[in-house]
Design brief:
Elements: H1 3-15, H2 18-25, H3 29-43, E1 48-51, E2 54-57, H4 59-87, E3 91-98, H5 105-117, E4 121-128, H6 130-138, E5 144-149, E6 157-172, E7 182-183, H7 202-214, H8 231-236, E8 242-245, E9 256-261, E10 267-275, H9 281-296
Parallel strand pairs: 3-4, 3-5, 7-9
Antiparallel strand pairs: 1-2, 5-10, 6-8, 6-9, 6-10
Length: 297
C-alpha cells in the first residue's frame, strides 16, 4: 500500500468531499476518485459512502481513518528525525572524558553552548582513562573525546586545543613549606610523591617524572591514587605531595594547600579529539561551537 493512498483518503475523510479534497491536494478530482477506489479494492471493503452532496465514512472507514492518521503522523516524525540526524541537529553524541578533565570550566562552557545551539541533541558522556578513550574513539564507540595532552596516541586524531593549564603542587597543610606560594620540585626531594596510575595519562605521568628529573632528583613514589583527582585526598591524609592540573584547585579539600610550580614546562593541554576524515554533522557542529567559543574569548 502506498502512503499517497493514505494521504488521499485522509483528505477526503476530513473534507467529506472529493472536489475540495482534490483542491487541497493539488490534483484533479477524477484521478483522486480512482486512487480511492484502488485503495478500497486493495483493502477489500468500501471505506466511503458516496452521497449526492459529498461522502460519509463507512464503519470500516472510521477505523481505517484513525489508523491512517497515526501512520502518516509517525511517518512524518520519522522523516523529520532522520533529516535532523543527517543535519546534526538531533540524535545523540557520545563523548569521552579523560580523568580529571571534567573539573575544567571550559569543558562545561563548551557543552552548554553546544546544547543551547542544538537542544534536540542528546549528549552521552563517559569517563575513562586515555588508553580506553583512544581505543573507543578509533573503534567508533565514541564520537569525540576530551583528552589531556601530551598524549602520544592522540596524534592519530584531529585535535583542537580547548585550554592550557599549569600544574600545581599539592602539600599537606602541616608541611613546612605550606606558606610559600611558589615552590620548586627540588624543595620536595625528601617528601614522597603520590602518583596516579601511568595508564590513566601516560604522557602526563612522564612529564611530571621528567620535571622531577630536571630538578635533579628521582622522586620517592609513595602509594598510588586511583585517579588524578583522588591524589588530593591522599595528600590530605599525609601520604606525601602530588602534582595535579590547576583546575583541580577548585576541589575544596580540607588539610591541603596548593602551590605554583616554578617549572614553566610543566603544563598540560585539554583538547577535543575526533577521528580524521569524520564527516559526522554533529561532530562538525561541536567543533564549530568550539571555534566560536575560541573567537569570543
Amino acid at each position: 500500500m502506498e502512503l499517497r493512498y493514505l494521504r488521499y483518503f485522509v483528505a477526503v475523510a476530513q473534507t467529506r468531499n472529493f472536489t475540495r479534497a482534490a483542491e487541497m491536494l493539488g490534483i484533479s478530482q477524477p484521478p483522486l476518485s480512482q486512487q480511492i477506489l484502488r485503495l478500497e479494492r486493495e483493502i477489500g471493503t468500501p471505506l466511503l459512502k458516496r452521497l449526492t452532496r459529498g461522502v460519509e465514512l463507512t464503519e470500516a472507514g472510521e477505523v481505517f481513518y484513525d489508523d491512517a492518521c497515526q501512520i502518516l503522523e509517525l511517518t512524518g516524525n520519522a522523516l523529520e528525525k532522520a533529516k535532523g540526524i543527517a543535519r546534526g541537529v538531533s540524535g545523540q553524541l557520545s563523548l569521552g572524558f579523560a580523568c580529571s578533565i571534567a573539573f575544567h570550566s571550559a569543558i562545561f562552557n563548551l557543552l552548554q553552548q553546544f546544547q543551547t545551539r542544538y537542544p534536540a541533541m542528546r549528549l552521552l558522556p563517559r569517563e575513562a582513562n586515555m588508553a580506553t578513550l583512544m581505543h573507543d574513539l578509533q573503534e567508533g564507540l565514541l564520537d569525540a573525546a576530551f583528552v589531556r595532552l601530551p598524549c602520544e596516541s592522540s596524534k592519530a586524531f584531529n585535535l583542537k586545543i580547548i585550554a592550557s593549564e599549569a600544574m600545581r603542587i599539592v602539600l599537606p597543610a602541616s608541611h613546612a613549606l605550606n606558606q610559600q606560594s611558589t615552590l620548586s620540585l627540588a624543595q620536595l626531594v625528601d617528601t614522597p610523591m603520590i602518583t596516579f596510575p601511568r595508564e590513566l595519562a601516560p604522557s602526563l605521568y612522564e612529564s611530571i617524572i621528567s620535571a622531577c628529573l630536571r630538578s635533579g632528583f628521582q622522586p620517592q613514589t609513595g602509594p598510588q591514587s586511583p585517579q588524578i583527582s583522588s591524589a588530593i585526598g591522599m595528600v590530605a591524609a599525609g601520604f606525601g605531595f602530588a602534582v595535579v592540573p590547576a583546575s583541580l584547585c577548585c576541589i575544596n579539600f580540607p588539610g591541603v594547600t596548593f602551590h605554583h610550580c616554578d617549572d614553566p614546562a610543566l603544563t598540560t593541554d585539554i583538547a577535543l579529539a575526533w577521528r580524521k576524515w569524520d564527516r559526522s554533522a554533529s561532530v562538525l557542529h561541536l567543533v564549530q561551537t568550539l571555534d566560536a567559543q575560541s573567537r569570543a574569548s
